[in-house]
């Protein structure tokens, strides 16, 4: 039995194109993998811990091999809980809108939480980075308001022609 983590990075619920496609994929996946566990993480509803001064200090303490203060320990436990949920999955589905030519801030916050030394990556003495979450398939559905093609002007994507959403 595999565990699939489905991360929704659009707040637009039933109006979201990326969520609509990812939902369809996940529903088909459930039918073809009835024994698998599917967990949905809506990043705009989840109680993600802030990656603030205390959390950042906790990160640097780890990188410099120093012990955490009590406040850093508490903040770091929340970070580790999010990472454990992420690493516990065997497969991932992401629904990701384009926001300002990038990703929505809640997904960036999620990445800032889960990308941590010793937990999801390591750096050796020569400065080489190595990922610790490997060999797991990821399916990403993304949607943008315009289609971007090399050497051509920006065009509205077909789905935006009927802006009922
Ligand atoms: C805050 C915000 C920023 C956006 N920035 C872009 C952008 O840079 N480029 C683009 O093509 N569309 C942009 N859009 C439009 C969305 O990508 C588009 O509505 C897409 O359908 C959103 O995905 P969703 O339907 O899954 O929510 C933006 C929308 C929002 C709300």
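-> sequence recovered:
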């Amino acid at each position: 039995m595999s565990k699939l983590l489905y991360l929704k990075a659009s707040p637009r619920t039933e109006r979201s194109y990326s969520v609509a496609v990812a939902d369809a994929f996940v529903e088909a996946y459930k039918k073809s993998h009835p024994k698998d566990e599917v967990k949905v993480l809506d990043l705009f509803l989840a109680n993600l811990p802030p990656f603030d001064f205390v959390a950042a200090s906790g990160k640097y303490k780890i990188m410099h091999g120093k012990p955490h203060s009590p406040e850093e320990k508490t903040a770091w436990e929340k970070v580790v809980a999010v990472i454990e949920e992420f690493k516990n999955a065997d497969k991932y589905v992401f629904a990701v809108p384009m926001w300002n030519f990038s990703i929505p801030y809640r997904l960036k916050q999620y990445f800032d939480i889960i990308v941590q030394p010793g937990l999801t990556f390591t750096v050796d003495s020569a400065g080489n980075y190595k990922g610790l979450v490997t060999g797991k398939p990821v399916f990403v559905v993304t949607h943008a308001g315009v289609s971007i093609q090399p050497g051509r002007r920006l065009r509205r994507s077909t789905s935006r022609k009927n802006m009922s959403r």
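The mean pLDDT is 93.
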